[in-house]
Amino acid sequence: MTLNSGTKLGPYEILSPLGAGGMGEVYRARDTRLGRDVAIKVLPQHLSSNPEVRSRFEREARTVSSLNHPHICTLFDVGRDGSTDYLVMELIEGETLAIRLAKGALPLADTLRIGGEISDALDRAHRAGIVHRDLKPGNIMLTRSGAKLMDFGLARASGLAPAPGSGTLGALTQSPTMAQPLTAEGTIVGTFQYMSPEQLEGKEADATSDVWALGCVLYEMATGKRAFEGKSQASLITSIMGSEPAPISQVAPMTPPALDRLVHGMLAKDPRDRVQSAHDVKLQLAWIAEGGSGAGLPKAVAHRRKSRERLAWMIATALMVVSAALLGRQLTMKSTPPGQVTRTIISAPPGTRLQITGDDSGPPSISPDGSMVVFTAVGGGGGKRLWLRRLNEFSARPLVGTDEGGYPFWSPDGRSIGFYGQGKLRRLDLATGSIVTLVDGVTSARGGAWSKDGVILYEVDYGSPLSRISESGGTPQAVTALDTTMESTHRFPQFMPDGKHFIYMSANHRDAAGSRSGIYFGSLDGGKPVRVLTSRSSARYANGFLLFVRDSTLMAQEFDPASGATRGEARALPDAVHFDQSTWNAPITASDNGVLVYGVGGSSGNNRLSAYDRTGRRLRNLSPVGNILTVNATPDGRRVAFEWQQLPFADVWSVDVTTGTRSRVTISTDDENSPVWMPDGKSLIYAGGRQAGARDSDGYNIYSVRADGSAEPRRILAKTNEGDMWPLDVTSDGRWLLHGVGSISGNKAIGSLWIKALGSDSASQMLLPKSEGFFSAQFSFDTKWIAFDATVSGRSEVYISPRPAAGEAFSARWQISKSGGQRPRWRGDGRELYYQRPDGMIVAVGIDASGGEIHTGPETPLFQAFQRMDVQTMDVSADGQTFFINTLGGDDAEPLAVVTNWLQTLRTH
């Protein structure tokens, strides 16, 4: 349908045509009410004639209209005039990035600026649950006020398809808002060049698909060439699926290495290995633009200067060179020269919380030359991940691809970082940004070490001895053996300078007094390890001393790294160090040249249970700072049960939300975790290993206990050959139990999801196998539905399924989250679901379960929470107004301390 000038569509008067495509015709129009020019897209008849499609399209359009962002083309209105449906959008004056790229590559500054603006726009959309799906230079407008991102995939988001014979896929996604004639790219190849591998395989696009497309766009801006080329559709697809583009620095030699690494990470074939968020891209581009490491480019110097100016610059340059040489010499000296002791702090990056203790995070780690510190933090547009801070810079940056990363350790040359994440031992090459998995199936590990000969020591889980593997991978080999009569774990290894000997901590989980805990000296050549220090704290070797914590005080014990002999008495340093007695983790790290970094403070753990309203305002603290784990609230929200690890095994506690009064529910010395309230709010079920004071066989059973402690715990479900048992939820009528079967390693339960009829002898029925990778699940209050998360798609997403009949597994599921989600929690009336996104944002989604199907509203971000990511850290009151969250540090978060020439403190104290 072609509209003539002067035609009215509601209050909009058509002025002139702008273009046409498979999604309709686009016109310049005048908004007669507001007196402004707009762009109007008229939808074709084959779309607007279908009431269901039109309704869905309008719903998606309303969502897009909420994206108020300076670099997103604004959707003003959705209308219908007679049988004509139309969209009203911002009219943008300028040219597309595609037209600009026809002239060649962009200057670096423009590439970084435009890339930052588009990544910021994508981040805003992704946080609202909207995926663009067709990001390409033709959908980016360059205007005087900056870049504008257009056409947020309304057709694909709504499940629409072009009419037969309407043209190519490229025609489907032509921009509706350019103030110039539209020119189709002409072939389907043009569209495919920015499609991610998973889209080409027919899978649903998500936020990482947009990251891929943005990587292609950045590559093209920096080089003037497309990342993937092909003479035909088939050859292009083959290129995208199987080849890598030439490094940007090879095509454009002046490109900063950091930009090359970033784009390489954005174009990873597997979405799980890709840069995970547009927010990460924005931060990295800003860091490069500010002159971050590896980004330095030679600056052009004007040739015509007055002689006085030239002389001044020469002198300044000479001074800079001399200063840099002196600084470099100081940082690389192996022995610390006499000098002034300096103290400073490293605070958490803006919008984050440090997580330097706890089961899956670990202490910070300083590079051997003392120039860089890597640590774990939560937030900042992502979940838990590693951050790198160069000590000669003001800010830290997230390390791409290290999601869920913890316990980092350096290679001896300072070029790579080993870490644990997503059940794997991995290594990150800082120069290329590449990440390699060395060992799979690693859970709740406690530290690692890297020798100068390329050997890595690691721990499979929290209760295992040490193993070794080559830095290039291979077959693991056992290095130490547990004496089960004396010890239950070997952890926190560190190689000595010779690359053969190492120290580690041995401890016994059932030795509350810590008399059996100590630091041992071992060798890769074999032989029985020797205890060198009795300590309940992990230890780090540096500059001839073992550093450890005693009663929150930093201690230094003189030590010979060649023989393992100690000399004299341990000496106290004037530093109070954070200490986590639940893992025996003292967050201490020191470099070869006398730079010491440690966590400030003396409390055990760095998180606490707090109550928040829907805006994220903290209402009250419900626990002290400590190693607080799983959280579960009564249906009325008056009491919250939580797991508190102190001995280092955990006990179940409860707290009155109104008065703040806390009481201990379980009192044994065994591990008791994963509390779940029964519907009456008077009793709890939990995972543990005791029955009437007696020790059961190793493993976790499910027990019931009165919250007031008036009766002994009673076992209601016993561990089987399938593994440990732990509870997840009980229906509001008390008849059905959701529970896991598998293993509880540390505090992360890994296994399958089951349902059990309480009070019956019938066996449990499996709902999800272990391969689904579920983490948490909850019944709706009416007992008809089960919300759960699963990683079957490659990352954790939230789903809803109907509660199956007896003897059946899930028969259907609806995916609720769009860009990742965990820990779903229902509102009492079943009309809203809450969960946590990978970036730590708590979101709400409206749920309509009428008619036996699930219909959802848009994902609404509520607030950023800095919760522990490795346990069940959130619950919500039945009215959806109060959130109980296990928060990292909260307002009491302590920083990292940095001390130079720390050996001098031994001479003065």
Task: Describe what you observe in this structure.
The protein has 15 helices and 60 strands. The model is unreliable at 154-190, 292-337 and 690-697 (pLDDT under 50). With 909 residues, the protein is an alpha+beta fold. The termini are far apart. α4 (108-127) runs antiparallel to α9 (207-223) and α4 runs antiparallel to α13. The chain folds into three domains: 8-289, Transferase(Phosphotransferase), domain 1, CATH 1.10.510.10; 345-605 and 894-908, YVTN repeat-like/Quinoprotein amine dehydrogenase (Methylamine Dehydrogenase, Chain H), CATH 2.130.10; 607-892, TolB, C-terminal domain (Neuraminidase), CATH 2.120.10.30. 16% of the residues lie in helices and 36% in strands.
